[in-house]
Amino acid sequence: MIIVTGASRGIGRAIGERLTENGFQVLGLARNVETIPFRAMECDVSSYESVRQVARELRREGSQVTGLVNAAGIASMNLALSTPPTVTQALLNTNLAGTIYCCQVFGASMLRSARGSIVNFSTIAVALGLKGESVYSASKAGVEAFTRSFAREMADFNITVNCIAPGPIQTDLLRGITEDQIARIVSQQVITERFTVDAVADVTELLFDKRSSSISGQVLHIGGA
Fold first, then answer.
1. How far apart (Å, rounded) are the C-alpha atoms in residues 195 and 184?
2. What is the pTM of this model?
3. Catalytic site residue from 38, 101, 121, 136
């Protein structure tokens, strides 16, 4: 079973749908699961206890976790000096702590099968140092650092850990960003094209293919940085 967080919309939903279509057993996690078209459970990844409750339920039913996609995330485009403390804490709780909690809880479940793949999510804003995204970038830079170290910790158990860092993808996270701003970001990518959730799903699916078993501890930029 592959766990996909943030499965109710955007990148998480697209990945969950793609993996389901291609024969993977998927469990989507989100705070609101009513519209998710595959199996889903309610979970707030910023709460360690909420994540543990999902793991307990999966153990009770005998399900084996072999993969994890940490796609849950929030964004706030503000200058650092004008970012309220509540927003800073929310970004860190969901983007960084939420990723770590899921890796800890579901990673432990994956040890029993001594195989698997974990895919975390960052953003091109980290590599480009984008103005107005300081706190958001900081939360995601933490995800990248965690990914590199965690990959080494899981390598002995035949579990790969990688990170995908997309450029601007048309999801709810881009609300409030103008087309001119998006165009400027895209112009700084190696491939100056605007990609869709399908491109992200392509790379994610690759990381669950046995042919990618030699890839771990990497940050993969959609569009290049």
1. 14
2. 0.94
3. 136
